[in-house]
Amino acid sequence: MTYLFYLCICLSLIIIQTTILPNFPLFERFYDLLILFTLYLGLFRPFFEGLPVILVLGVVMDSISGGPFGLYITTYFWLFVIMRWLILYLHAGNLLLFSLSNLLLLSLVVFAGVLMGNVVFLMAMKISQPDWSFWVPAKKNILFGQLLWVIITGPFFLVVANSIHQRLEKWIKEMSAERNGLH
Length: 183
Prior knowledge:
Largest sheet: none
Helix content: over 70%
Number of strands: 0
CATH topology: Arp2/3 complex 21 kDa subunit ARPC3
Radius of gyration: 18 Å
CATH class: Mainly Alpha
Strand content: under 5%
Low-confidence stretches: none
Shape: globular
């Protein structure tokens, strides 16, 4: 059931990112929503639960993006691994408690994750097209716009995704216990 939840979230985010957001000028500088989902899996879910989702998600995005194959899978994989390393130092469950310090720390983690994802994309563009330059003001504005959006919306996405997932797991356990006559 967890993987069905992940499938629904991933498909929803892909549809929102590729078909809905580009149609609104306000969201033309929005960040890659799937990076946030990758961060969520890395911070709050077990390694072997999130890893297959990240790999499949990366292959799907590489297939539909038209960019160099392996770009998304590499980006999502390394962000996932970095988040798994980061939770050795942060207590990820504590980040979801509402306090100003937790909100700032979660904002910083999400900001750094999206920034790292963009750095990988920029490096891939430079490698695949040597004459490509980031220093065009429009490209810098897009990156800064994405980082602003991620500070505003990123932490809330993680909190909401975790809350929905916990409620779903609780509901499944209750249904299972009821079915087995334990409730």
